[in-house]
Amino acid sequence: MKIQEILTKSSLEAAPLLLGCYLYRKLPDGILKLKIVETEAYHQDDPASHSFRGMTTRTAPMFEEGGRLYVYFTYGMHYCVNIVVGQKGVGEAVLLRAAEPLEGIEVMFNNRYGPVQGPTLYNLYNQHITDTNVRGLTSHISGITDIKNLANGPAKLTQALGITDTSLSGKMLNGSSIWLEAAKEPLKASDIVASPRIGIKEATQMPWRFYIKDNQFVSKYNKNHDG
DNA sequence: ACCATGATCCGCT
DNA sequence: GCGGATCATGGTT
Hints:
The protein is of the alpha+beta class. It has a single domain, classed as 3-methyladenine DNA Glycosylase, Chain A, CATH 3.10.300.10. The chain is 19% helix and 25% strand. It has helices at residues 3-8, 11-17, 105-113, 121-127, 141-144, 154-160, 222-225; strands at 22-27, 30-43, 69-74, 78-84, 92-103, 178-181, 192-195, 209-212. Strands 1, 2, 3, 4, 5, 6, 7 and 8 form an eight-stranded antiparallel sheet that branches. A hairpin with a 2-residue loop joins strand 1 (22-27) and strand 2 (30-43). The longest helix has 9 residues, at 105-113. The structure holds a DNA duplex.
């Protein structure tokens, strides 16, 4: 299915359709490519959604036509990225919760952990290095050299993309900075799991989180919610 | 006061 | 390794 067609659909339809699609990000250091593996649908009729209480300066992009970004700041330190979908005037979006890094992985490492002197963390990962003194890090060296930890959460994904503010919120996915490409082949329904969303206090039972079954790059909360 | 979170620590297996 | 508790930290309402 064409990306443009997905972006005109409601969030509940679009969220599973975005699984397997590719996310691109153009940065000075190169072009990043990731495969979307986990999403959540939010809608203005849904009390867990930022758009539920109406349009504000922050949430205005959710009410635009599909094909824009909605970026928000949360918990005093994190940013998260949504794909705005549906029709203008309806506040809905799909939260990107996790992705599989495909290209530009070293740039993603630097976006997540900062540039390092000498051998990069990316190279350490590739060499399965056990140097426990890089940047003074010891016990968590295995965590930061794990490629699965680059984008397996909404704020991690945003950080890996090099998004460090809300300046992209409301912008089009137009190919200059960040854009999408359709999945090569549609996922089979049996490859998609629907489950309750993560980290919300309202509508906690609605199965509006979607992820690719058995994918290693989904956020690590599966065991709480898998059926 | 409340968060669509992540990293760390700590006790347990 | 894993699960639960804790905390960092600031925009939004």
